[in-house]
Amino acid sequence: MAGEVAKEETVVTKVKILKKTNVKPHKPLGKKECQLVTFDLPYLAFYYNQKLLIYKGAENFDETVEKLKDGLALVLEDFYQLAGKLGKDEEGVFKVEYDDDMDGAEVIVAAAEGIDVADLTDEEGTSKFLDLIPCNKILNFEGLHRPLLAVQLTKLKDGLTIGIAFNHAVLDGTSTWHFMASWAQLCSGSTFISVPPFLERTKARNTRVKLNLSPPSDAPEPAKSATNGDVTASVDPPLRERIFKFSESAIDQIKSKVNANPPEGSSAPFSTFQSLSAHVWLAITRARQLKPEDYTVYTVFADCRKRVDPPMPESYFGNLIQAIFTVTAAGLLLGQPIEFAAGMIQQAIVKHDAKAIDERNKEWESNPKIFQYKDAGVNCVAVGSSPRFKVYDVDFGWGQPESVRSGSNNRFDGMVYLYQGKNGGRSIDVEISLEANAMERLEKDKEFLMEA
């Protein structure tokens, strides 16, 4: 089947922490600081961004750990911000601070020798990853007193995992995978990284935004019982997470279908991303069984490096993303052919040019709002990550990952992560978090799975 559902198993994760250390840049750098700008600050109340890379091989675990730590010390010379801490100046402007006396990045060494690589790559969900990735449910503002980068290296029966937690107020997905590729390059024998990070953050935005940030509560609002007026805690519906694998052939079929009858006014043929986005949005909306008048929102966290004026290089290190929204009624969305959804998404993306970005920044700076990770909108489908990130090129010297996944942080009903497929080419893995009953319906949707 084209939209293959990942196999479901049950794995009890037994992880033993062996050692915790810190890694600093290989050579002294002195004192450095970097102002957080408008693109960074809204993410202070998100959780740390978590990734898990699962590898076979790397037979001598102790030697591998030392090799990875040595490479980390070298790469932190260029990406020094990840070895620092968050700070605030006397005016309340957030910044990244680094000096040679700081501890640097945290490295945790662990063992789970009863677990096979296959146990982690076949199962749905993310609960099995909880003990393999650090910083579960740690908010980014806690970077005031925590490392901005934490790494856990865990020995498996037939391989190892590299669990990484990045402070999302410091970097976005493009910067995350730039860092990972650079670290792997140094571990594979290179004496320098091919593309150094562009660290002049205020080139993208030079406004000093003062925030009076108090720790946000992630606890649900209390709700009154309909029967007796007692105050009870509202409970979010249980979520399930699954990967749906779309082959090159399936992606080509979706793209061909969406472009068969382009609507009037479409600016260009629909891209792979726009076509797949429409396919996913429609399927999740069907699975949720919304009323025709219910609104549904599609949100894309778009890279703005080439959109801002002046454009920033791909190597810009920091956050340079903004959420782009499009909204319609569920009945209208489902009552139209798929190119209607693709057209809405395309139009929202095209309109988000340098002028729109600047207006969004000015609006936010005049009334700063710190978002929480699930503020993306009602009945939302929100897309993070990107299939253009070369996640399977992260080879530390013993081969490419068997699987790349996101951790349990920053997930809500409708969160979608897109990754390049393991087989490369145009294949794409779609990782979806959805309310459990809706997920069960999605798994049976032959149109979504390309079985119709």
UniProtKB/TrEMBL annotation:
The keyword Ribosomal protein does not apply. Residues 209-234 are annotated as: Disordered. GO terms for molecular function: acyltransferase activity. Signal peptide: none annotated. The keyword Transport does not apply. Keywords: Acyltransferase, Transferase. It comes from the Eukaryota. Belongs to the plant acyltransferase family. This is BAHD acyltransferase DCR. It comes from Nicotiana sylvestris (Wood tobacco).
